[in-house]
Specification:
The chain is of the alpha+beta class. Helices cover 44% and strands 18% of the residues. Strands 1, 2, 3, 4, 5 and 6 form a 6-stranded antiparallel sheet that branches. Helix 2 runs antiparallel to helix 3 and helix 5 packs across helix 6. The radius of gyration is 21 Å and the shape is extended.
């Protein structure tokens, strides 16, 4: 995202670069993003719901730093899946299974075209900054006037270590609630940021090329 040939819109993006599994902001702060699983709270018993709420409350009260929980919705893309089913059906020797597969693909494709089906992803954004003024999360702070880096390499390394410690703590808390979470790597971070800046753009080849990190 950084570079001499930055587009006008890039001048308002606070994310300066992505290094390994860290988003580096233009003000020198660092951010890690976890992709978290979800659960159907309504299907839990009353006792299970109470236990989950208690664990979640304890988890939040134990934090001495800010986090942001973000829900990101996007239109469900299943064309590759349907194409795979179609290809397999053409190779099927059982005529009945071939017909059923073709009808299934047609039904799903028509159903998706008529319905606005969205897939939801849940993210936890963890931050560290030189001033420890982490009141805004990644998604609420991506667009801002131009800022200059405020820290040197030594301070950046210290912040990375602190960020790793916070990530480990959050992962431990997530597991205590019977949920799963994984830290996004470089490619996943680039793809997420690109999809936020360019909704509707789906081609991954263009994604990594456009990021220029």
């Amino acid at each position: 995202m950084a570079g001499k040939n930055a587009t006008p819109s890039q001048k308002f993006i606070m994310a300066d670069s992505v290094k390994d599994n860290v988003v580096v902001m233009k003000d020198g702060s660092l951010k890690a993003i976890l992709l978290a699983s979800s659960l159907n709270f309504e299907l839990k018993s009353v006792d299970e719901q109470s236990a989950l709420l208690f664990q979640y409350q304890n988890f939040l009260n134990s934090l001495d730093f800010s986090i942001q929980i973000v829900t990101h919705s996007r239109k469900l893309e299943i064309e590759d899946y349907l194409n795979t089913i179609s290809e397999q059906s053409r190779l099927e020797t059982n005529e009945l299974l071939k017909i059923q597969s073709q009808e299934y693909v047609e039904f799903v494709r028509e159903f998706v075209s008529l319905s606005n089906i969205m897939s939801k992803s849940f993210y936890i954004v963890i931050s560290v900054s030189p001033m420890e003024n982490i009141k805004q999360g990644l998604f609420s702070k991506l667009f801002s006037p131009k800022n200059q880096p405020l820290i040197d390499e030594k301070e950046s390394k210290r912040l990375e270590n602190q960020l790793d410690q916070r990530v480990d703590y959050i992962l431990s808390g997530i597991r205590s609630m019977s949920l799963r979470a994984v830290r996004l790597g470089r490619d996943e971070l680039v793809e997420l940021l690109y999809s936020l800046y360019n909704p509707g753009e789906e081609k991954r080849e263009e994604l990594l090329q456009a990021a220029s990190l």
